[in-house]
Design a protein that fits this description.
Helix content: under 10%
Radius of gyration: 23 Å
Number of helices: 2
Number of strands: 44
Distance between the termini: 6 Å
Length: 536
Amino acid sequence: MRKSFIAGLAVVVLVALAADPASANGAPYTGKQYDFGGTVTTINGSIGTVDSIASSIASSTAATLNDVAAHRATLPYGDITPGAGPALSLYPGPAGVAASNWYTATVNDQSSFVYKTTAAKTDTNREADTSWTSFSFAGSVTVKVTAVGQSGLTGCQVRPQSAAIATSFAGNTCTFTMSNPKNVSVEFAPNIHNPIAHPMLVFANPPENDVPPATGDPNVLYFGPGVHDIGSGNVITSNRTIYLAGGAWVKGAFIANGPVSNVTIKGRGVFDGKFMDLGDQELNKNQPGMIDIADQSSQNLLVEGVTFVNAPRFNVRALAQYTTIENVKTMSWWYSTDGMVAGNKALVENNFVKSNDDSIKLFWGDQVTRGNTVWQLENGAPFMISWNLANSPANFHVYDNDVIHAEHYQIQKSGIFRALHAGPGTPSRYLFENIRVENANWRLFYLAVDNNKWYDPALGYGELDQLIFRNIHAQTNYQYPSIVQGIDSTHKARNVNFVNVYTDGACQADASRFTIDPGTTNAVRIVRSTDGSCWT
């Protein structure tokens, strides 16, 4: 992705050019295939097997989208299409919730409350806090974010760069126009590289639609603006809607004690899990998640629009069949705070995930994951394929996502795309494509059948099979090579394909930036289009 940066007289404009790869992006390819035992074969031409698998995955998951939408349409208050307006909805700061001391914000010259969450795992977190503001709009708006009392700032930019939002900078204020809803990071030069001590986020939501009434529907639990202290253990039941209005701050967590159906959790308010935080990594592992629907026989779930902060454990575990997680925002600090995981047959779309454990877990099949933005902290992975899975999930289409930061710096097996598969299952048929990675320099891929201290080898091992990474654009160089390995000669990583992967300043066509174990892998292909259309 190319950008032009025009600076002059205290004005900085960042322009990100079109994010889509060139349209002519396919065969013939050139590259290498690495097979079991160390055989290396040159590829010049088509890769029909890979293209056929990719088309099959895309077709299967497109049908899944239709199934999920059909179920979602039966939910009371389940419509996720943007509402008609108003043109701008600003939300009040809840009484007793302190405003950020680092930033102020206006939208169309009207004040928009700026929140702040403080880093909790202070022994490893290299950030001090995160500030954010949230509003809804239709049409276009002008946003101004001012860095308060910060000296030496020289400009600003908005990530993800694929949003192509131009900025101007003057007097410590970053000004930009938004014409589409998007969850973005506003960054002030020179503080635009990991770690950023005081990040600032803007959650620019679409207008709400299908809003439940504050009173009159006994199946609606409605939280209006202000602070609500309800604690943990709140039970989710079937045919229930939980709504958080903009300006609501709910100190609470919800759990389903068995299978549930037809559940909607939505709004523009905030769930806060700070009250559950025991201040200790090991103790927090026993704390509940913020939304916990663990029974996989559950059906028809929507989580939309809300923000989760300060979770000591995971944020959204939604293992129902026919799940939609749409425009959800998470910010959390501990090694055990996953962002989100959905059940079989799911859509995970347009979310912003800032987590220290895995941001998006891809553990149950028939799933589309698209339009998401990830800011990864030091522990987990933006896209986690497996962690000791006993099942064999299949059919994932993960596309048009942005990783704007990955703060990996000490955990050796970290990577943007990661599988630490020590389970007996065989995860397969993952299609990752059109994914952009901006500020990351540790490792791009770590894909392994790999034992760990949390797994009993007596349970046996599976394999990794049919993984496709196509049109991946990583802007930076990586400290460590990408890893592809199985655990032994019968439990391999196989049919792993890297097609037009741009990293370390080049479109890859061999294993020079990879470590591939010849004794535990088979059919690992690394190719680029010969017409030069690799996304550079």
